[in-house]
Each structure stands twice: as structure tokens, then as C-alpha cells.
Inverse folding.
């Protein structure tokens, strides 16, 4: 009777720990779901906000597919093959005085999430792979939007440049992204995280001996 009772108490404790772990991970997934947590390149997530870095300057990056997902916002990766809108709001005021251009090129060389500007090749290579281009201009109001239309899933690379005429410096931000591709690893890693937490809870939980005198109170009669 005693060993059985101890085993039962131990299993209950493990279940409680695993349940808590699952809840914590699920909550994390829920919190991060409004924005893609896999942002990369010149775009990152800070305090649940998608931020593009251009040299020492920053802009708020927002993506939408209003026809399919209403006001739901995404960060970089476009979830569905359909019309999309990217909106950039300059956080750093000096960007308002610079000539800013924006383009999207097809990732023809399968560079992936670690792409840099140098990886894109020559000016001719970049022009040949360009699918969307917004010519350089000053955005004195501090924001602009780009309408996109993709007819197939694939991998792309966004490039934004900001030219400071006063110093002659050109700042470049590169951000790889995908269109209409499911993030299998992004989902799988959370499953693995839950399993790892559950395994750790089982391995490190007591398997013998009472957890506390209170556990068996009223059961020894």
C-alpha cells in the first residue's frame, strides 16, 4: 500500500509540473502569434513590435493582408499567397530627410535567412531578380507603404536603402522573408520544448519517499 501511494503521489506531481510547463509554453505561443517570432535580417521583434534597422536608424515595420486577414499584422513572412501591404513608419527622424528606396528581389540563389546585400550580386543581378521597386524619394511625413501581389509561394529578399546627402553615407537594410510557406520548424520546436520540459520534470521529480508530511495526512488511518 505504501509504495503504491508514494508512486501515485509522485505521478501526480509530475503531471502537475508537466501541465504547468504546457500552459507556460502555450501562453508564450499565444503571446507571440500576432507577430512572426522568426523575424530575421534587418527586421527584429522588440516588445512585440516589428522593427527594421537601417544603419543606426530604426523604422516600424508592419505587414497586412487586408482582403484575407483584416487587420492582423505580420512581421516579414507573408502567410498566404495573395495581395499584401507593407507599411514603414520611421522611428528615427533623420530618415525623413534621406532619399529612401525600397525593393523586393526573388531569392534566386536560395540564400535564405542569412542573406546580406553582398550576397545579392551585382547591380545587374539585383535588377534582374527585382519583382517590386519603389524609387528613391524623401518621405517627410515619416512613412510610406508598398502594395505587393504574389501569385506563387516562394522566398524573397527585401532591400531598403537610405542615402544621407549631408554625409554621403548610404545605409542598407536587408530582410529575407517567405510567401505562403508554412513554418514547420517554428511549430515543431514548441512541441519539442514541451516534451523536453515534461521529460525534465519527470527525471528530476522525486520517485520515492513522501513529498511532505502533509501529502499523507489523513491517509494512514
Amino acid at each position: 500500500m505504501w509504495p503504491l501511494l508514494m508512486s501515485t503521489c509522485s505521478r501526480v506531481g509530475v503531471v502537475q509540473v508537466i501541465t504547468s510547463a504546457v500552459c507556460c509554453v502555450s501562453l508564450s505561443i499565444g503571446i507571440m502569434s500576432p507577430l512572426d517570432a522568426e523575424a530575421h535580417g534587418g527586421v527584429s521583434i522588440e516588445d512585440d513590435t516589428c522593427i527594421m534597422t537601417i544603419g543606426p536608424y530604426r523604422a516600424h515595420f508592419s505587414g497586412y493582408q487586408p482582403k484575407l486577414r483584416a487587420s492582423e499584422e505580420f512581421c516579414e513572412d507573408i502567410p498566404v499567397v495573395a495581395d499584401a501591404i507593407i507599411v514603414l513608419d520611421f522611428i528615427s527622424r533623420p530618415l525623413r530627410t534621406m532619399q529612401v528606396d525600397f525593393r523586393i528581389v526573388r531569392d534566386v540563389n536560395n540564400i535564405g535567412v542569412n542573406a546580406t546585400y553582398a550576397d545579392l550580386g551585382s547591380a545587374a543581378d539585383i535588377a534582374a531578380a527585382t519583382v517590386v521597386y519603389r524609387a528613391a524619394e524623401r518621405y517627410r511625413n515619416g512613412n510610406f507603404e508598398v502594395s505587393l501581389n504574389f501569385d506563387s509561394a516562394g522566398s524573397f529578399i527585401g532591400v531598403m536603402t537610405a542615402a544621407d546627402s549631408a554625409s554621403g553615407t548610404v545605409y542598407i537594410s536587408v530582410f529575407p522573408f517567405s510567401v505562403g510557406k508554412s513554418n514547420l520548424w517554428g511549430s515543431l520546436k514548441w512541441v519539442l520544448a514541451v516534451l523536453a520540459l515534461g521529460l525534465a520534470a519527470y527525471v528530476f521529480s522525486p520517485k520515492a519517499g513522501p513529498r511532505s508530511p502533509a501529502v499523507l495526512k489523513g491517509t494512514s488511518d
Q: What stands out?
A: The longest strand covers residues 154-164.
